[in-house]
Request: fold
Amino acid sequence: MNLSLVIPLYNEDESLPELCSWIEKVMNTHQYTYEIILIDDGSKDKSWSVIEDLSSKNTNIKGVKFTRNYGKSAALYVGFEMAQGDVVITMDADLQDSPDEIPELYKMISQEGYDIVSGWKQKRYDNALTKNLPSKLYNATNRAITGIKLHDMNCGLKAYKNEVIKSIEVYGEMHRFIPVLAKNAGFGKIGEKVVSHQARKYGVSKFGWERFINGFLDLLSVTFMTRFAKKPMHLFGSLGVLSFIIGFGMLGYLTFEKLFLNTYGMTTKPSFFLGIMVLIIGVMLFLSGFLAELITRNATDRNHYLISKKIGV
Reply:
């Protein structure tokens, strides 16, 4: 199979028929073998009924319905598990991502050898103050911390080699950082393509200002996970030893003053209490690293989601 299109959705009953029709037209024009995997993330509208109707007319359309809203990462995780195509493309269901971009994305993966190609919505139709400006600041921070030079890491329109999505685990809100996870797994050829951005036709945006705050926290989390998940003692232990040495040095100097310089009132000095505090912090950090090492040796069931219905799976 040439292509798997994984499309998470939440309350998108109005846009789904038009989106699937558009995708089918592109697939038929280029004679791709394909599947469309629609992941209904606990929608409250008629999205699932629309999926059932679309699947009855086109057997290439498959659907999964969660019992409740788990988030985009959960939907992508389940969609990635199901995907069978040589190239996997993700896109949003709100018609802001254009299916006309699919052939070029497919070519960049299948012929040009990229592991991942991320879309870059260079010209956007979102609100400049509430979405575009924060997005630019957010992506600049991403580039500085991760070293991956993408202009729009959070763009929903991306293409992957199948082995990439089978080699990474997406959970929490880590869908924003799939290129980081992929690079950490050894897939380093990451490209970017300027894609068109459509103005929203139906419904309203599901994201607000909180996504930028959460995104920054997730960035710190994924940075830690990719660098120290398998070796947390390297981080906590190093900080702990450094803190312990500083505290020990401060208290050692105060002891020297007391014994050899006959200095009195040592326990009234701020440096005395600061030295004790830094010493204790060092011990606590070291113990945190040790406990983290023990925790990493136990498998966790992070990706268990309740599915109420399936179609074509």
